[in-house]
Structure formats: C-alpha cells, structure tokens
Design a protein that fits this description.
- With 229 residues, this protein is mostly beta strands.
- Helices cover 8% and strands 39% of the residues.
- The protein starts with 16 loop residues before the first strand and ends in an 8-residue tail after the last helix.
C-alpha cells in the first residue's frame, strides 16, 4: 500500500460515513469518518477500526487498549495522556498529529507512517515496529526500550532524548535526522538526541555528521576517556 499524503489518496475516502454516536468497548467501526470530535476519557478498549479517518480529532486521557486499526487515516489530531497500549496498527497514517504522554507500549505496527508529527514522551517500549516511517517529525523523549525495530526510517526528523535500551534494530536508518538540537554541555545525551541504549544501535545506519555528534557519548558508553594534552 502506498504512503498516502492526503485522505483523498486512499481508495476508501469516498465511502466514508460521518460518525454519529459514542466510542464503545469492543466497538466495530468500518468506513467511518470522525471530524472535529473531542473524546475526553473515552473508553474503547478492544475496538476495531477499518478503512476509517480521523480529522481534527482530540483524544484526551481515555483508553483504547488492544484496539485493532487497519487502513486508518489521522490528520491534525491530538492524543494527550492517551492509552493505546497493546494495540495492532496496520496501514495507518498520521499526518500533522501531536502525541503527548501517550502509553503505546507493546504495539504491533506494520506499514505505519508518521508525517509532520510531534511525539513527546511517548512510550513505545516492547513494541514491534515494522516498515515504519517517521518523516519530518519531532521526537522528544520517545522510549524505544526493548522494542524491535525493523525497516524503520527517520528522514528529516529531529530526535531528542530517545531511549533505545535493550532494543533490537534491523535495517534502521537514522540518516537525514538531526540528533538533538541547541546548546548544552558536550556529551549531553539530550543534546545528542539519544539518552540511553547506545549498545543497542547495532543494525542502524547513520551518516558522518551523526557519527561526530554521537562520538563523545559512544566513547563514554564504552568507557573510553578522551583527553588532549
């Protein structure tokens, strides 16, 4: 499936029907369009969403654990302190979205795109991320601890304070990402973009500039002291 850049790119867009009702536990939502809806403390665990779209939607707090999303479009939507843990996402697109304080550990994702999004303090621990694209995103304090990353790319992203502790990486491409930004002391992990988990970066590709940025932290991780007379 192609990486859609607008809802109109998706074959099911003309078939969508406006949402009318409430989100329910174990609900079944097929070809539904959610426009400008604010869900506060919604409880929709175990729900299924297929060929659906969310535009300008807000999820604040609430719980959608173990949900199943297939061919779902999100644009200009916000997720604040939301629980999406243990869910399954296949062919899902996030465009211009904000995710802050989201519990999304143990996700299973395949062919998921985040484009022009901001992820702040998002918990992706123990996730299986396969064929995931982060494009032109800001990732702040995102936790990839113990996650399995396969064919994950970060072109045009800014990454700050990421944690890769005990993660496993296969064909992960960090090239084109800015690892950290702004002042701070040399060797500051937040400035360098990666806070922890340097030993888990085997299987990633980085460019020369990124290597220069990471070098002091890699030396510190390996117990190498760098001193100039």
């Amino acid at each position: 499936m192609k990486s859609a850049r607008s809802l109109a790119d998706l074959s099911f867009a003309p078939l969508l029907q406006p949402f009318d009702g409430v989100l329910e536990v174990d609900g079944d939502y097929d070809r539904v369009r959610f426009d400008g809806v604010a869900f506060a403390d919604a409880t929709a665990g175990g729900s299924r969403f297929a060929e659906s779209a969310f535009t300008g939607v807000t999820f604040e707090r609430g719980r959608m654990r173990r949900a199943r999303l297939s061919q779902v479009w999100f644009s200009e939507s916000r997720f604040v302190a939301f629980d999406l843990a243990e869910s399954s996402l296949t062919d899902v697109w996030f465009s211009g979205c904000v995710l802050a304080g989201v519990q999304s550990f143990a996700l299973t994702t395949r062919r998921v795109t985040f484009r022009d999004c901001k992820l702040d303090s998002v918990n992706l621990r123990d996730c299986a991320l396969t064929d995931v694209l982060f494009e032109n995103c800001v990732l702040q304090d995102v936790d990839f601890g113990s996650a399995r990353l396969t064919r994950v790319r970060f072109p045009g992203c800014t990454v700050r304070g990421a944690d890769f502790t005990k993660s496993s990486c296969a064909d992960v491409d960090l090239r084109g990402a800015v690892l950290g930004a702004g002042g701070g002391a040399a060797g500051d992990a937040r400035v360098a973009g990666i806070r922890a988990g340097f030993g888990s970066l085997r299987g990633t590709r980085i460019d020369t500039l990124q290597l220069m940025t990471l070098a002091p932290l890699l030396a510190q991780h390996l117990g190498i002291t760098v001193e100039d007379d």
